[in-house]
Amino acid sequence: MPKKKKKKKVVKKKAKKKKIARKTKKKKVVKKKKKAAGKKKMSLLEKAIASGASVEEAGVITHYFPHVEAAVVKMTRGDLSLGDTIIVNGHTTDFKASVKSMQLEHAPINIAKAGQEIGLGVNAKVREHDVVYKLL
User: Fold this and answer.
1) Does residue 113 carry a pLDDT above 80?
2) Average of pLDDT values for 83-104?
3) How many whole angstroms separate alpha carbon 6 and alpha carbon 48?
4) pLDDT category, 118, cuts 50, 70, 90?
5) Which tens digits make up the pLDDT trace of 5-56?
6) Cβ pair 80, 112 in contact under 8 A
7) What pTM, to 2 d.p., does this model score?
8) CB 59 within 8 A of CB 76
9) CA-to-CA separations, 103 to 6, 72, 75, 80, 123, in angstroms, rounded
């Protein structure tokens, strides 16, 4: 019978070692994630400006319709036409796209001017207060 007790102690020691090993692995993974989070990633807007491209604010997103993948944009400055390249930038949004469809009062348009609220087809989720920039 004493042999069985010794085996139990050995098994318990092995289990403790495994738990300790698991904990240290988790800590290492967390440290790596924290290091990666410290590096700031440049947004597409910052990259475009750094490369010397001219960028102009075109408007601000006021609403998003996910079922039709369209956004309502309040045009603030300049104009926007079909085929223009835009960058949509916000807190969690950052993508570049080409303008393929625009509507004003449910009618397709080719050019949107400052002061208008237009419907803009987008290929990614956008949020209110995201800013639409036009690449010149």
Assistant:
1) yes
2) 96
3) 69
4) very high
5) 555 555 566 666 666 666 665 566 656 656 555 567 889 999 999 999 999 9
6) yes
7) 0.70
8) yes
9) 80, 9, 13, 12, 16
Amino acid at site 107 = A
Report the C-alpha gap between 65 and 43 in whole angstroms: 24
Q: What are phi and psi of 69, to 5 degrees?
A: 50, 55
One-letter amino acid of 87 = I
**Residue 71 structure tokens:** 């956004």
Q: Which amino acid is at 68?
A: V
Residue owning tokens 């609220």: 117
φ, ψ dihedrals at 2, nearest 5°: -60, -30
What DSSP string runs through the chain? -HHHHHHHHHHHHHHHHHHHHHHHHHHHHHHHHHHHHHSPPPPHHHHHHHTT--EEEEEEEEEEETTTTEEEEEE-SSEEETT-EEEEE-SS-EEEEE---EEETTEE-SEEETT-EEEEE-SS---TTPEEEEE-
DSSP letter string, 82-98: TT-EEEEE-SS-EEEEE
User: Does residue 130 carry a pLDDT above 90?
Assistant: yes
